[in-house]
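Q: I have 569 residues here and want to know how they pack in 3D. Can you give me a structure?
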Amino acid sequence: MRQRTFLAPTLRDVPADAEIKSHQLMLRAGLIRQTASGIYSYLPLGKKVLRKVEDIIREEMDEAGGQEVLLPAIQPAELWEESGRLHAYGPELMRLKDRHERDFVLGATHEEVITDLVRNELQSYKKLPVNLYQIQTKYRDERRPRFGVLRSREFIMKDAYSFDTSNEGLEQSYQAMYKAYQNIFTRCALNFRAVEADSGTIGGTDTHEFMVLSEIGEDTIAYSDQSDFAANIEIAPVVTTYVKSDEPLKEKELVDTVNIRTIEEVADFFKVSAAQTIKSLLFIADGEPVLVLVRGDHDVNEIKVKNVLDKDSVELASAEETARLLNCETGYIGPINLPSEITVIADHAVEAVVNGICGANEKDKHYKHVNPGRDFTATYADLRLIQEGDPSPCGKGTIQFAMGIEVGHVFKLGTKYSEALGATYLDENGKTQTMIMGCYGIGVSRTVAAIVEQHHDENGIVWPPAVAPFDLHLVTINVKDEAQKELGEQLYQTLKQLGYDVLFDDRPERAGVKFKDSDLIGLPIRIAVGKKAGEGIVEVKVRKTGEMIEAEVAKLPDVLEELRTKLGN
């Protein structure tokens, strides 16, 4: 491709609204342009990288037995009604009506549509198992689009769905996808971890997220410093054993605490550690009030609360709801003298608190010398976020944290959707059985951004060869010099004939501009045709290492082959 006519508008300055490197560099290198908040156009360079990632995904999915389909982006709302997700999914689901006032949604995900397709087409065990996948644009009305294509309202995703006749078959499908994902992200040259995760609005059990390690990641990974255990902080179980003090129980006492609201203020006022206080948070779970208690030095894990209660929606109560239900302000909530309709659940650590401090459900009042069991009752469960230094759930080492970007997620759905939508088959005995499903997603556009996050330097992107938009960047330094121009044209044709995908910089620009753009775009190898063109010598630069080689044109194919082997492609 000749760069003179190639749409790759580079930027010298960092865009003001681009907070992270991948967003900055994808804009500056001319891969994307913003159309609206969270909505981007992919320019030719960006599209070529997307295609490279998609090709890797297709190869691995096909190798694992997947079959590619293309499902509609516009989906009938009644399918989502059938599954029960039309209202449960929340405001991220984009909804619309056609000219006949019929309700539709824009595809945020495709469990309903694929299940509808399979229930109508596959009714015999002889046609199962099957794994169908697609690569398609998805739509989610993000409250706060940010970080470029990492969190956008329109994005490209690969989603796959397996249908099996047994849990053993589902396990095989799951493991095949797990291995395929490992291969995909390894081939994309990403440093990643597969971590245990929560299934969120998709549902199901036994899920893993594939997380690219990055300081700008929005997810926290809890991992053992002595084993391969890794889990999203949202679901990492706490296995700490709490030892209850044998100090004598003191009489509960109501204390004036004017304008003392936070755990830090309470601990300072009573001259105790935060671990001696009880943090009380009021939640609304599927419309029902629930008081959740954790130790003052711990944080509530809302995912665990949701799972323990087996509810679809768990949200922190508003100030108005708190006032209506408890007749007090936040900051003074506690588990004593509660209305009977409020359920109380507490983290295991709370049960070991002796002579603790808690809110009194009265403005400017706290209780001291509070003891669980004597002064209040609760149902106990693991409800807190794991912390660094906690023992690892695997029994080896302690927990450490790292940040990660989620690029893939695999789920065992079981019969959640097949049961709701009636996806059944006849077994070998002629009996009707429900299909058992798995779901497997990869954020294709997120993967591209994650690659840039891990592969860049101060001068621009440093593409791994497997996903680079072009193999080579051929640069004629001075197109007005006949020897350079002639050799550049000759090499362009020769390299293409050798099978290389070449970006040929034939622009009438200064050498400095061309080299800066070359570093910014970041192709693996640059070939500069300069002052020694008349001698048949060019300069070869390896983008990743900065290594420079003078090569005779006749030997250039051998030099390039050696470099490609060294770079891993």
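Q: Anything worth noting?
A: Residues 167-187 form the longest helix (21 residues). The chain has a mean pLDDT of 95.
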